[in-house]
Amino acid sequence: MHIRTILAALDGSAPSERALAMAEDLASAYSARLVLTTVIERQVLLAGELSTLQEPGIETQALIRKGLEEKAKALVARGRRAEACVAVGEPFATLLELADRYEATVIVAGRSGKGALARIVMGSVTTSLLHRSNRPILVVP
């Protein structure tokens, strides 16, 4: 298999930063394109018996986009082909959709930054990717 496009799933955690470094190494070795992505979850708002999903604010999205674009520019300055993508949605499903859209050969993600109890209750995006993706997933500790 020749790696052409790498989708790097970033969430600002230490494992995702290590995943970015690994993704850059892979991109260098295979002359692959890097797509840096962060998926922002909609927030659940509870009001009595009613609940609704709230889109993240424009300012939040812009701040995250700016950070990803800076990372992509730094990669380009080091001779890599890189671009940034910020999406809103349920993280693992959105990452799979982005992998399809960008025709990613592999998805690189950091291991979950959650504790054991949080993973049991809420699950892990990385674990969901491992169980549901039809692409190789490289998990970086």
Draw up the topology in text.
Layout: E1 5-9, H1 14-30, E2 33-40, E3 43-47, E4 50-54, H2 58-77, E5 81-88, H3 91-101, E6 106-110, H4 116-122, H5 125-132, E7 137-140
Parallel strand pairs: 1-2, 1-6, 2-5, 6-7
Antiparallel strand pairs: 3-4
Helix pairs in contact: 3-5
Poorly predicted sequence stretches spanning 5 or more consecutive residues: 114-123
Q: Whole-number radius of gyration?
A: 16 Å
Helix/strand-derived category reads alpha/beta
Instruction: Write the H/E string, N to C.
Output: EHEEEHEHEHHE
| Shape, per Cα inertia axes | globular
CATH overall fold name: Rossmann fold
Any idea how many domains?
1
Average pLDDT number: 84
CATH level 1 name: Alpha Beta
Strands side by side in the biggest sheet? 5-2-1-6-7
Largest sheet: 5 strands, parallel
Tell me the strand percentage band: 25-35%
Q: How far do the termini sit from each other?
A: 24 Å
How helix-rich are the residues, as a percent range? 40-55%
Number of helices: 5
CATH superfamily: HUPs
Give a count of the beta strands, DSSP E runs of length 2 or more: 7
**CATH architecture designation:** 3-Layer(aba) Sandwich
Word description of this protein:
There is one protein chain. The chain is an alpha/beta fold and 141 residues long. The chain has one domain: Rossmann fold (3-Layer(aba) Sandwich). The protein is 45% helix and 28% strand. It contains 5 helices and 7 strands. The protein has helices spanning 14-30, 58-77, 91-101, 116-122, 125-132; strands spanning 5-9, 33-40, 43-47, 50-54, 81-88, 106-110, 137-140. Strands 5-2-1-6-7 form a 5-stranded parallel sheet, sandwiched between helices. A two-stranded antiparallel ribbon has the order 3-4. A hairpin with a 2-residue loop joins strand 3 and strand 4. It is globular. Residues 114-123 have low confidence and may be disordered.
